[in-house]
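DM from R.C. (forwarded with permission)

"hey, sorry to bug you on a friday — could you get me a structure for this? deadline for the figure draft is monday and I only need the backbone to look sensible"
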Amino acid sequence: MAINLKKYVDISTIFPGNNSGERGFGGLIFTKNEPIAPLTNSDAYNAYNTTGFAYMSLNDVKEIFGEGSEEYKAADKYYDYVSPSGRFASKLAFMKYGDSKAPTAVDALTKADQMPNISGFGSVLFIDKDTVSDFGSSTASVSDPIPDELQELLSVATFNSETLATKYLIVVARTFDATKKANYTAERALFEKIPGVCYVVGEDVTSGVMPQAILGAIDFVNGQTTNFMFKMFDKEVPAITDSNLYDELTAGLINFYGQTQTNGQTLAFYQRGYNTDGTDTALFCNEMWFKSACEMELLNLLTNNERIPANSLGVDMVKLAVVDVCSDAVNNASFMPKVADRSAMKTIRQIVTASDGGEEAVSSIAADLETKGYSVYAYLAEPKSGSNEQYIAYYVFYGTADSIRFIEGNNVLI
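My reply, with the result:
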């Protein structure tokens, strides 16, 4: 167990209504399947048997679950992916759940999130959950209760969004069946208001590792962020080859591996890279990295200084720490210069005014966005309800390919 980091640094993403630095972002797969005894002594097997959690190489998965298992098929697809810049995905982790130590999906993610001495992960997939429900289909009533298996996925997605502040990308994967289009659309709609969920249909549940591998192969510090669209997986079978299906699934924000043809040559790639709430998956992952990096910098600030003064100096200390991360975000193309339109200016003005800031701060933020691609607005805030501690609040406004967005963070003064 560990004290929740939000007790010290509390960062949450705010998604506008306009349509770690060193943390790892590899994939984590939850499974209820029991391991088989390996032929040789395996550190991964021993760790998995002891804690229920282990990072595994492809050979580890082969020995622990068997070459014919879904776990191995998922790992084979995951490790086979190579990004256009030549990067492989970070190491894949497996965790057992459904037992007394982690009986539910929420229990499992809670346990994984609190595991000590791990490099971290960025996305999760429950490999045992691949039964699309009849919820919302023409044969079901909208008043029918949500099936338990689907409700469990909704619960873990809500837990990730509300309790963990969208710390992870939750992947919901289904085996594609063209006769169940309405079912997929209905299921995806249930996740519509939950940030951080990616709904994928494909050859089988192992198709869910595609967004996991794309995320796991991004080098946020020394490389470039990526668009999830057009990424190729040699070991994935295209599930969609029809234009009408493409239109229907795309309109429903359902991701898939589709095949097209040009000059007699067929090309297959991941499409279209959107979360269930309409957010571009790449944009969500950029924000996930940025929040993590800010948390690391601010925690270092808190632990490396005797105190953070409750005055303008303390505000500047926090601002400079966040600006360091912003520089990385510009270098890896998470942020980009953007002219604030009327809607963005209204949002900026509302935030600044609510903190007793003036028009000069609004103009400065707009100028920074246009020239640098980001602006950090920080101020000393009054204690929250039930507390007598002042805190430093900040907003990072930044430009992306489609809009101007922002995150909100609080740095508790100790």
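R.C.: lifesaver. The longest helix spans residues 281-303.
me: no worries. Confidence is low (pLDDT under 50) at residues 15-21.
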